[in-house]
Known about the structure:
By secondary structure, this protein is of the alpha/beta class. Helices cover 35% and strands 24% of the residues. Strand 4 (57-62) and strand 5 form a beta hairpin. The relative contact order is 0.16.
Amino acid sequence: MPVELDNVSYAYGRNKPRIIDRLSYTAPHGFTVLLGPNGAGKSTLLKLAAGVHQPAAGAVRLGRLASTSREYRNRVAWMPQSITAMTGLTAREQVAYTGWLKGMNRADAWTAAAAALERVEMKDRAEVKTKQLSGGQLRRVGVASALVHDARVLLLDEPTAGMDPTQRRVFRDLVLNLATDEVQVLMSTHDVADLAEEADHVTVLTEGAINFTGATRDFLAHAPADTPEGRRAEAAYTIVSAHSALSG
């Protein structure tokens, strides 16, 4: 059951220009990378999909569930760009606290926190204070917090920003393992090489409009035939972006 944005518009203020204007988008099943430059509207799209923002026009839904409903927010989890380490809390306590905020009772949240940390390969750091974790580890705590209440849609906003290549690789493997028939992942990034070749789908967003959405193989097919293997995503993005600019 995918998240669907139906003819959605949004602006940050009544007299401000619309960041997103009459956009319709159905997030595919599996793992989708949302590509686009900074300022393209990726964070806004994810916040609308998470129910953090409500559209000025149009509707956001998951099946029959409206984004304004509590059940929707229980099934759709959002991880923002910045993860704050809560002073004095261990990794498990921070994840459990998120579960409690989502409506779980304390006992269930505590048990689920351990399972969520194990899913993101942080079981051995569960009792470490979050202030003592590395940036990459704290982002994994953020993913665990998003998963603790058994969400079916996981929205990740620039989760690899600031990571070195090794940390990116670890996070890449983590996301690929999370994206299953039961969990749908939509991850935004401005780094065109960031997981694009290993994702199931790619969506390209520029100035609040979708330039391309489809299977990764179809996205990569835009790259010239003589493009080196490791540069196909970058070349495809350049072609798609250039085509959008000419169309506009």
